[in-house]
Design a protein that fits this description.
With 599 residues, this protein is mainly α. It has one domain. It is 62% helix and 3% strand. The chain contains 22 helices and three strands. Strands 1-2-3 form a three-stranded antiparallel beta sheet. Strand 1 and strand 2 form a beta hairpin. The termini are far apart. 35% of the residues are buried. It comes from Anaeramoeba flamelloides. InterPro entries: ArnT-like_N, PMT-like, PMT_4TMC. Belongs to the glycosyltransferase 39 family.
Length: 599
């Protein structure tokens, strides 16, 4: 018998048809919905394109019309604040920024520069062994401090106090009996070296200080080295550092104050380090002002920088005003403390009457002085003279006397001739060698190559400053954008340094033009502290050029070496005038590069 096969019941055909119909309907619905979505997107795109074309037409119509007179334009203050944000945002909250990024390279460089600096300042420091130019005044002031006799000077007393203290440190038996009566007067012993050593030490510290200042500005190692070489072989700075004068202290405090003010801008606001460095910056500014009032140009430049920096951090004027008060007191209080403390010691170290009695500005103070020849008698008790009002009167008296000094000098020069070094060079000292036509000289003149380098950088920055001003007037402010070519990168770097660059320009201009209102004689050495404010500007310009056009490190050092050659030549050529080497009359005449150098 055949086996019965299992017969499967066929499915209902109607059910299958209905399922297929449902699938077809769902598919058609999805297709229809997709087409609707695509159509909506196309319509949206068409509408956007229509709006773009309408906006273009409107802009074309507006550009064809002349601009209205009531158009608001960006002010130059706003433009400078906008440009300054590139530098500020990059280094804000970087309180852990190290000055030395590569210790293996930088420590040997700093040590080598410092050793060379001490060598150039201390070489033949004992010669000449006679009084040179302003040593007549400052050597006499030191003696009067030690003897306790009152004197009057047109400059604040801090540097003179340091000199008198160092005389006791380096020479405890210093007698203060030498008179410092005239230029060329022979010293009887070696006690004068106790007064020349402190100025030589301070002058030797200028080169490493300039290097560290540039590194705080984030300038490259080769350019920082080059700038320190400029200070190393600057003839007027070397000459002033070898004499009993106060100018090296002014040079040092100016550089240190600028360095600490730069450091403050790179720290987190209101942090412990921020308060510490702003306090130190105020102290160093006070030290510079307590040496010479001509450092006021540096203070004006710092105030300009702080106002723009604060305005960028706090956009509204209320918070800006609060921050100005905080920062103003943080700077001002240490400055005033140093200034009044220096006068406190000045008055208390001179209890006896002396040559300064004729410049009486306060009867109570003059009456408190003791005459060394008076017998010992009993006197009624008298309240001590207060330092603050006495210092204030003394400050006005110094400026009044300074503005009233009249008369000429054969070696005086006008401030307009200093930047080009076409001014009269100063013959500090000369001596004829017996039985010979040769003479020994000490001249004060700058290194013309260094002066011209810095003048070129200042002119470049001023032209770029004017270019930015013109672009703002035309309502086309220069923006800091991502650029790709090397030339564009160079200009972007210059833009990034606009804040500190303009600060150095303002320091330079104010420090120079201060002498336009001084009626008394001005000399070439007055330009040396002004030059120090322009050297960091030269570093900014050169660093931007090196970073943009010279990518290889070896080529950067080669450029620095080539630029240093003329500077070293300007130093070596005038060495006989710095270290008083004997020279013949023909050699003497060849050393005058310009006719205007003759007195």
């Amino acid at each position: 018998m055949k086996k019965n096969k299992k017969v499967t019941k066929p499915k209902n055909k109607k059910v299958i048809k209905t399922k297929n119909k449902i699938k077809i309907k769902t598919q058609t619905k999805a297709k229809v919905q997709g087409q609707v979505i695509i159509n909506k997107k196309e319509k949206d795109q068409d509408q956007k394109q229509k709006q773009v074309t309408q906006n273009k037409k409107e802009t074309k119509q507006t550009t064809n019309h002349k601009p209205q007179k009531t158009k608001v334009r960006m002010t130059y203050f706003q433009y400078l604040c906008k440009v300054a944000t590139f530098d500020i945002r990059k280094y804000r909250n970087t309180h852990n920024l190290l000055i030395y990024r590569n210790l293996k390279i930088e420590i040997p460089i700093v040590l080598f520069i410092t050793l060379l600096s001490f060598a150039t300042r201390f070489y033949r420091l004992e010669t000449p062994d006679s009084v040179i130019f302003d040593e007549v005044h400052f050597g006499g002031f030191v003696n009067e401090y030690i003897r306790g006799e009152y004197f009057f000077d047109i400059h604040p007393p801090l540097a003179k106090l340091i000199l008198s203290a160092s005389a006791k440190v380096f020479c405890p038996d210093y007698s203060a009996e030498f008179s410092f009566a005239k230029i060329g007067q022979q010293f009887p012993n070696n006690d004068y070296m106790c007064l020349r050593i402190p100025t030589a030490i301070i002058g030797s510290l200028l080169c490493p200080t300039m290097y560290m200042l540039c590194r705080v500005l984030n300038i490259s190692i080769p350019v920082s080295t080059f700038v320190s070489i400029m200070i190393l072989f600057e003839n007027s700075a070397i000459t002033e550092s070898r004499l009993i004068v106060t100018d090296p202290f002014l040079f040092f405090f100016i550089l240190v104050s600028i360095m600490f003010c730069i450091k403050v801008t790179k720290l987190r606001l209101y942090s412990k380090l921020w308060y510490f460095f702003i306090f130190v910056a105020g102290i160093t500014l006070g030290c510079a002002f307590s040496v010479k009032v001509t450092s006021l140009g540096v203070i004006i430049g710092i105030v300009f920088h702080e106002l723009i920096f604060i305005h960028d951090i706090h956009k509204d004027w209320r918070s800006t005003f609060k921050h100005i008060l905080i920062r103003g007191f943080a700077y001002l209080i240490p400055m005033l403390l140093i200034y009044y403390i220096s006068f406190y010691f000045h008055f208390n170290l001179m209890p006896y009457s002396g040559e300064g009695d004729g410049h009486s500005f306060d009867d109570q103070f003059i009456g408190s002085l003791i005459n060394k020849t008076d017998p010992l008698v009993s006197l009624p008790y008298r309240d001590p003279v207060s330092t603050i009002p006495l210092t204030t009167k003394m400050t006005f008296k110094m400026q009044q006397y300074n503005m009233g000094v009249e008369g000429g000098h054969p070696f005086s020069s006008n401030w307009t001739s200093w930047p080009l070094h076409t001014c009269t060079v100063m013959n500090y000292w000369e001596k004829k060698i017996p039985n010979s036509s040769e003479k020994r000289y000490v001249f004060c003149l700058g290194n013309p190559i260094v002066w011209w380098f810095n003048l070129a950088a200042i002119i470049f920055y001023l032209l770029y400053f004017l270019r930015g001003l013109i672009s703002v007037i035309r309502n086309k402010p220069q923006g800091i954008e991502k650029t790709y070519s090397r030339s564009q990168y160079f200009w972007a770097l210059i833009d990034s340094t606009m804040l500190w660059g303009s600060t150095f320009v303002i320091m330079y201009i104010f420090s120079l033009t201060i002498y336009a209102g001084v009626p008394r004689c001005t000399f070439l050495y007055h330009y040396t502290p002004i030059l120090l404010t322009a050297v960091p500007l030269t570093a900014l310009v050169l660093d931007a050029f090196v970073k943009s056009f010279i990518p290889k490190k070896s080529l950067k050092w080669l450029v620095v070496a080539l630029l240093s050659i003329p500077i070293i030549f300007g130093y070596v050529f005038f060495i006989p005038w710095i270290y008083s080497f004997p020279i013949t009359p023909k050699q003497f005449d060849k050393m005058f590069w310009f006719k205007s150098w003759h007195a």
